[in-house]
Design goal:
This protein is an alpha/beta fold and about 400 residues long. The chain has 16 helices and 14 strands. α9 packs across α14 and α12 crosses α15. The mean pLDDT is about 95.
Length: about 400
């Protein structure tokens, strides 16, 4: 039994709610359920709408508001550890310096590749791109990688390089959390200290999935380029008669799917409804064309006893055990995805067996109980090392 801790969690929420926001909420609830006192310091990207471009740019580089807010929280709450999730753009890396002054060790979860890629996805023009990994990220500004804006890309690249030069990434974070070994290795290639990076996956807590027949395939996520929505649309058009694909979510590429007779668009659903859809599906489709860190949807699918058909790219190639917990296909190859979708349609017994393997993997490694033990061990290391 671990002694209760006082933990300050910091997170900059997104304008469109995504997996990172859900992970933060789940970890806060998990820690509180195990008796720890948790405070949440949160800022929202919705605030950008009321700021001038100059003010938003300055806060991205160094937020004086965060410095003041954090100093007050440290003095009043006296946390034993600060766990930062997303600090971009409004919280900013000034948070780590405030923690150092208050003698509070910092743990940082690496949900995306922002610290080594200003665009955060290691992707450009629909292809994997590592041009800035381990280098001064001037190419991101040149290619307008962030929001197709040279000016905004220059600000983000400046933030990354400024704090690299100040030693923020090297010296102000006691422990980093990477979601898998593949992502850890990319961060090490980008200059983060390997000895400070620990691996801890995402988790969910779901009961045993109901038994019963399954049919159709399911996609859950943002309908955007990096998620492979174009690949999915093309593959669905090649599918055999009678194959159905349900799609949960919305986004800029929704129109690509609307014309398909094989696809049913369900829009955004509440988590409980998503789990119900997963429990009825023969497989979850994850056709991403970028280096996904650890999609929460994969954990949810495994918890629901649902195998995953995913791109053989980045961490997905190891998260999904081909032939045991799902199927892998060549990234970006709609024809190969269509073959795997048709195979799943024609082999329900084999897919059901993969689903049982997926649930067993979840029970071994991806539950909340397992996750909180790993998280507390990382906190203990950070506290033993002490603040920067």
């Amino acid at each position: 039994m671990h002694m209760p801790l006082r933990i300050l969690i910091a997170h900059n929420t997104y304008q469109q709610r995504g997996g990172e926001d859900a992970v933060v909420e789940a970890e806060v609830a998990l820690l509180r359920a195990h008796g720890h006192e948790v405070r949440l310091y949160q800022r929202s990207n919705d605030d950008i709408n009321s700021m001038s471009k100059a003010s938003a740019a300055l806060q991205t580089l160094w937020s004086s508001r965060t410095q003041n807010d954090a100093a007050a929280l440290f003095a009043q709450f006296q946390p034993q550890v600060l766990h930062a999730h997303n600090t971009f753009p409004l919280i900013s890396p000034s948070l780590y310096w405030a923690a150092a002054r208050a003698r509070v060790p910092v743990v940082q979860t690496l949900h995306n590749f922002r610290l080594i890629c200003p665009q955060a996805l290691l992707m450009r023009e629909g292809q994997v791109c590592e041009d800035c990994v381990g280098h001064i990220p001037w190419r991101a500004a040149r290619h307008a990688c962030y929001r197709s804006s040279v000016a905004q890309s220059a600000v983000v690249a400046g933030m990354v390089q400024m704090h690299r030069a100040l030693g923020t990434w090297q010296h102000k974070v006691a422990r980093y959390i990477a979601l898998n070994a593949f992502c850890r290795d990319r961060f090490v290639a980008g200059g983060l200290p390997r000895e400070r990076i620990r691996i801890k996956p995402n988790f969910v807590d779901l009961p045993e999935p109901p038994a019963g027949p399954r049919q159709g395939l399911l996609f859950v996520g943002r309908l955007s380029e990096e998620k492979g929505v174009g690949v999915l649309a093309a593959a669905a058009a090649m599918g055999p008669p009678g194959m159905s694909v349900q799609v949960v979510g919305g986004g800029p590429l929704q129109s690509l799917l609307q014309a398909s007779n094989q696809v049913s668009l369900l829009g955004a659903l509440a988590p409980a409804e998503v789990y119900q859809a997963m429990g009825r599906a023969r497989a979850l489709l994850v056709p991403s064309i970028w280096y996904e860190n650890f999609p929460r949807t994969v954990v949810e699918a495994f918890a629901c006893g649902t195998p995953v058909i995913a791109s053989r790219i980045g961490a997905l190639a190891t998260l999904v055990d081909d032939g045991r917990t799902g199927l892998l296909f060549k990234p970006g190859d709609a024809a190969d995805l269509a073959v795997k979708m048709a195979w799943a349609q024609a082999h329900p017994d084999e897919m059901a067996a993969m689903g049982r393997q997926a649930r067993a993997h979840y029970e071994r490694e991806l539950t909340g109980e397992s996750n909180q033990r790993q998280l507390l061990a990382i906190y203990d290391e950070a506290m033993a090392e002490g603040p920067a």
